[in-house]
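Request from the bench team (R.T.):
"We need a structural guess for the complex before ordering more NAP. Sequence and SMILES attached. Just send the tokens back."

Command: build protein-NAP structure.
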Amino acid sequence: MRATVLPKYGDPELLTVAELAMPSPGPGQILVRTAASAVNPVDIEVRSGRAAANVNQPFPLVLGWDLAGTVVDLGEGTDRFAVGDRVVAMSAQMATGVGTHAEYVALDSALAAPAPDGVELTHAAALPLAGLTADQALELLAPEPGSTLLITGAVGAVGGFAVQLAVARGVTVLALVRPSDTVAVRALGAHTVLTDDEPLPAGIADALLDTAGLPGAIAAVKDGGQAVSIVPTAAPGPERGITVRMSFVEQDGERLDRLGRLVEKGVLTLRIADSVGLSGVGATHRRLAAGGTRGKLLVVPALDD
Ligand SMILES: NC(=O)c1ccc[n+]([C@@H]2O[C@H](COP(=O)([O-])OP(=O)(O)OC[C@H]3O[C@@H](n4cnc5c(N)ncnc54)[C@H](OP(=O)(O)O)[C@@H]3O)[C@@H](O)[C@H]2O)c1
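Reply to R.T.: structure attached below.
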């Protein structure tokens, strides 16, 4: 089977398509034929070597943390899914060594959930990592209905899901975006739109969810409020009695199942920027790193055929 492999840390051009042995599902695992996987910022961190301290696998590495696809085989004792099921899954590639930019992926069935009905299977690959990150960060903040939450990077992959999840909880969402994104973030349900060409008003929000890596955004939080960042390199310092925490995404098939049902209900929308084949992964790294991408970049193995 084909996969996009990284032979050593370095530039995106190192990512090439190679023939690898077909994975075999172990006990409790499913073998998935990948319809699509998503490209996430963490893939750039791993590929460049900036995350090398957290990567414990030998080269060549297969990158990619999430996928949508069809179950084609079951390991011993696997009863959560049947052959033919459409699934989505997140595998923390850095920790598990299981990358998803491949035609076939074997992973623990507990990491997977039924793919949402009513959307293309390839598009469902936009959900797992970004959706789980948004939901877990919000759970940490636990904003009350009617409270005000500032979300930075609110049209980003994580920020966009966070806006929709927070609005669905009855939270009043203040969204910080680029000036060109005001219409898009209102469409996601944001109540108040702030742009990064204007100074951020001080003390306007009960809580902050920073997905854009803007530690200064804590100024917008009221004294004694809460802040959660998902960007470890840009964590805000504690000030004015504000509780500051980091949130790191964890794989969670059951939570992913709940998120999939929210997609079916239209609470969460899947935003796709573009789809490339396995041979196009390197180009997506350059594109994502440049900024300005709106919606997920997907890797669709069938596009190479
Ligand atoms: N802790 C975790 O477990 C975890 C999980 C997932 C992601 N992350 C991290 O979280 C961050 C966001 O991930 P993502 O997938 O959502 O990335 P993304 O889709 O690129 O979203 C980031 C958004 O922030 C916007 N932004 C950047 N600077 C801004 C500013 N000054 N004002 C307003 N908006 C600004 C970006 O706009 P432009 O494109 O115009 O720059 C983009 O829309 C990344 O750093 C990623 O590494 C962490």
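Two things stood out. The domain at 2-127+271-304 is CATH 3.90.180.10 (Quinone Oxidoreductase; Chain A, domain 1). Helices lie at 41-48, 93-96, 128-141, 157-168, 182-187, 253-264, 281-290.
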